[in-house]
Every structure is written in structure tokens, then in C-alpha cells.
Specification:
Blueprint: E1 3-5, H1 11-16, E2 22-27, H2 32-47, E3 53-58, H3 63-68, E4 76-81, E5 84-90, H4 95-102
Parallel strand pairs: 1-3, 2-3
Antiparallel strand pairs: 2-4, 4-5
């Protein structure tokens, strides 16, 4: 798996029906903290490619998802397993903090 772009049109199929846990990255082009965490998400996507999906949602082009999940501050990471949000992080957080939320979902 790789990092995929999730949109209002494909979110149900790509994220909610995923067989593996998903980190949903709510971001925007103009958001500097969003760009700061992008390398961490790319590393997680590479390191755990068979066990997790990283889905990026541009809140400007897919506002429906942002409204649905209450993304008032970005970056916002949603941790989804079996179509349910099980955890979230808001702000530019270290990779270690992302993994602390993610690793239990892969067990």
C-alpha cells in the first residue's frame, strides 16, 4: 500500500472499507504544520506498507469529510479501524506519538 488521496467521492471505499487500519491526514496546501508532518507519514506508509494505509484528505477540495469529522484545526490525524475512528491527534506531532496511537491498531 502507499499513501492515497482520499476525497469526498472515494472516502467510503478507500478508508471506511479498508481491510487494514488507516491514518487519515486532514491537511491543506497552505498549512505549514501539515507539511512538517508529511515526511513522518511517508515513512510510516513505507515502513508499515502491508499493515496500514495512509490516506490524505485535502480539506479545501473535500470539505465534506472535514465537516463530517469536525476538523476545525489541522493537521488532524484520524486513526480508523474497521470503519470506526478509534483515536485522533491534532497538530504537528512527532512520529513517535503517531506510532504510539497506530501500533496497537495493527495487532
Amino acid at each position: 500500500m502507499a499513501t492515497v488521496d482520499a476525497t469526498d467521492a472515494n472516502f467510503e471505499t478507500v478508508v471506511l472499507q479498508s481491510e487494514v487500519p488507516v491514518i487519515v491526514d486532514m491537511w491543506a496546501e497552505w498549512c505549514a504544520p501539515c507539511r512538517m508532518i508529511e515526511p513522518y507519514l511517508d515513512e510510516i506508509s513505507d515502513d508499515y506498507s502491508e499493515k496500514v494505509l495512509v490516506a490524505r484528505v485535502d480539506i479545501d477540495s473535500s470539505p465534506g469529510i472535514a465537516v463530517r469529522y469536525g476538523a476545525r484545526s489541522i493537521p488532524m490525524l484520524l486513526f480508523i479501524k474497521h470503519g470506526q475512528v478509534v483515536d485522533k491527534l491534532i497538530g504537528a506531532v512527532p512520529k513517535k506519538q503517531m506510532l504510539k496511537k497506530l501500533l496497537p491498531l495493527m495487532e
